[in-house]
Design a protein that fits this description.
single chain; mainly beta; four-stranded antiparallel β-sheet; F-box domain-containing protein; F-box-like_dom_sf
Length: about 400
C-alpha cells in the first residue's frame, strides 16, 4: 500500500522546549541583549524572568559594567562610561550619562555635594549625607530611599568607617536579585565614650524587608589600636573589600582591622615586619596597602614597601604572610620604564584597578596633571604603562541593573 504524503505541520518558536530555549538565551553576550530579547515575546520573557535563568546568566557572563562613579571629597560624584567607546549594542554614551546621573536626588536632598558615595552593588548606590543619614538609590530607575542611622548614645562621639551594600537576605525565598525592596546595608562605626575614653568598633545591618530596623551584629574594643583621646577616625582607613572581607589599616601601626561581612565579626591581624625597615616609620593607608581579593576565609592584600610590591595572604584566625615580593623596576615591561621608575610609589584608583586582582601605581613625586602611571595584574606582577589624570578619587563600578520582572 502506498504511503500517503502528509504535509508536515509548520514549526514555530512555541515548539521549542523551555530547556532548549534557555540554552539559546544564555548565549546572549550582554544583559542589554537579554532585556531586548525579553521584550520580543511573552514566551522569551517568561524564560528570562525566571530566577534560575538570571542566576545562571550572571554566573556565565558576570555583571555588565556601564561605567564607574568617581567620588572626590571636594567636588562630589562624577560618572564616566567604561569603556569610553562602547560596543555597538550598548546605549549611546550621552544616554548612559543622563540615565545614571544623580541629579534626580536634588529634588529630595539639599546640598548633594556633601553626600559621600560609599558603595555600589547590583545597580544600587549607597551614599552617606551628614544631614539625611544613608541614601540608597537606583539611578537607572530613579528610585531612592532614606535610611535613618542608629541614634548616638549619650556622652559619645562617632565616626562612620564605612557603609556597604549587601545582597538580599539569605532566607529570601523569592530568589530575586538585590533591588530596592530587599537590599541590606552594613554600617560600621567607631564610637568613643567620653566618660572613660574607651573606643569600640560596631557593625549593624539594616534590611529593607524589615523597615526602619537596625540589627547589631557585633562590637569590639580597640583602645590598644587607636590610643589617645577622641574618635581619631582618620586613623582608621578603609583599604578594601573582597571575598566577604572588609579591612581598615590603623595607619599608625602595622595592625589591620578585619570584618567578616557574613557574620559581622571583627578581628585584628598584624602585617609582617620587613627586615631593615623601622617599624616606627611604617604608615599604611589606601596609598600603600590594598585588599585585592579573597575567598573561603582568606584575604589577599598588596602593599608597597620602599621600591617593592609585596603580595600578602591572611587566613582568618591565622597569621598574615608574604607570598611574593617583587621590585617595582623589575616588574616594568620595558627598559625605558625601568629607568623612569623611582622609589616613591603609591596606589591610586582608576577603572582598570577596580576589578579584583588588579592594582595601579603612581609616582607620588610627579606633580603634573597628567602623569605616566602603571597598572598591574597581581598574578604576574607585570607593569603596563598607562596615561591617566592624576586624582585621588575613589572608584565604584556601576553594573547594569536587572530590570526584568
Amino acid at each position: 500500500m502506498a504511503k500517503l504524503n502528509v504535509p508536515s505541520q509548520r514549526t514555530t518558536i512555541h515548539d521549542i522546549s523551555d530547556d532548549l530555549l534557555e540554552v539559546v538565551l544564555l548565549h546572549i553576550p550582554s544583559t542589554a541583549g537579554v532585556i531586548r530579547a525579553a521584550a520580543t515575546c511573552k514566551l522569551w520573557r517568561r524564560v528570562i524572568g525566571d530566577a534560575g535563568f538570571r542566576r545562571r546568566f550572571r554566573r556565565l557572563n558576570g555583571p555588565h559594567i556601564l561605567g564607574h562613579y568617581y567620588y572626590y571629597e571636594r567636588s562630589g560624584t562624577e560618572f564616566l562610561p567604561f569603556p569610553a567607546t562602547p560596543p555597538a549594542w550598548q546605549i549611546a554614551v550621552d544616554d548612559i550619562g543622563a540615565r545614571v546621573s544623580l541629579y534626580f536626588l536634588t529634588t529630595s536632598y539639599a546640598n548633594l555635594n556633601y553626600a559621600e558615595l560609599h558603595d555600589s552593588r547590583c545597580g544600587l548606590l549607597a551614599l552617606y549625607h551628614f544631614g539625611f543619614g544613608i541614601i540608597v538609590c537606583n539611578p537607572w530607575t530613579r528610585q531612592d530611599r532614606q535610611i535613618y542611622l542608629p541614634m548616638p548614645m549619650v556622652n559619645t562621639s562617632m565616626h562612620y568607617l564605612g557603609i556597604f551594600l549587601l545582597d538580599a537576605d539569605p532566607d529570601d525565598e523569592t530568589g530575586t536579585d538585590m533591588n530596592m525592596s530587599n537590599f541590606r546595608v552594613l554600617c560600621v562605626r567607631l564610637i568613643h565614650y567620653h566618660h572613660d575614653g574607651s573606643k569600640i568598633v560596631e557593625a549593624s545591618v539594616f534590611s529593607a524587608r524589615n523597615d526602619r530596623r537596625w540589627l547589631l551584629l557585633s562590637n569590639m574594643a580597640i583602645c590598644d589600636v587607636i590610643p589617645g583621646r577622641g574618635v581619631f577616625g582618620s586613623r582608621l582607613v578603609l583599604v578594601g573589600r573582597a571575598g566577604g572581607s572588609i579591612c581598615w589599616s590603623t595607619k599608625s601601626s602595622n595592625v589591620v582591622l578585619h570584618l567578616d561581612e557574613g557574620t559581622g565579626e571583627f578581628s585584628l591581624f598584624t602585617l609582617p615586619v620587613n627586615a631593615g625597615v623601622d617599624i616606627n616609620l611604617l604608615s599604611y593607608n589606601r596609598m600603600e596597602l590594598r585588599v585585592i581579593g579573597g575567598d573561603f576565609g582568606t584575604v589577599h592584600l598588596v602593599r608597597i614597601v620602599g621600591g617593592d610590591i609585596e603580595v600578602l595572604r591572611y587566613a582568618r584566625r591565622g597569621a598574615c604572610v608574604v607570598e611574593r615580593r617583587v621590585r617595582v623596576p623589575q616588574a616594568a615591561s620595558t627598559e625605558d620604564d625601568r629607568r623612569e621608575l623611582r622609589r616613591v610609589w603609591c596606589f591610586f584608583d582608576r577603572a582598570e584597578a577596580a576589578s579584583p586582582g588588579s592594582i595601579a601605581l603612581c609616582d607620588v613625586l610627579c606633580d603634573a596633571e597628567f602623569v605616566r602611571k602603571f597598572s598591574a595584574d597581581v598574578q604576574n606582577l607585570k607593569l603596563e604603562r598607562v596615561k591617566w589624570r592624576k586624582d585621588g578619587g575613589r572608584t565604584f563600578p556601576y553594573e547594569l541593573p536587572w530590570t526584568i520582572s
